[in-house]
Amino acid sequence: MMLRKRTRPAESILNIASVSGRGGRRYLSAYSASKRDDRTIAFTKSVALEVVRSGIRVNTILPGFTDTPMTQGTPKQPRPKNQNKKFKRKRKLTKNKKGTEIRRTTD
Known about the structure:
This protein has five helices and four strands.
């Protein structure tokens, strides 16, 4: 990747991995594979090394469970009635994060 030195304020690239990418999750096989954290982090580090002299910051975040339409399930994705309850019990955080809360942490 060839970039010239920028005169504008620093820019950044933010990749989003997922804790679901650390292991398999029932009913989320495609999502888990696409968010595999070691591959996303390796990609991020490679890009960071390529653009470091251009003043561009490159990072990855793994926000954990986030309350989104995908995690609420849809009629097309059958889920056991107690799946979300079991998952929430395993988590250390008690409050579901919303996408807007994660967005604020990246400013």
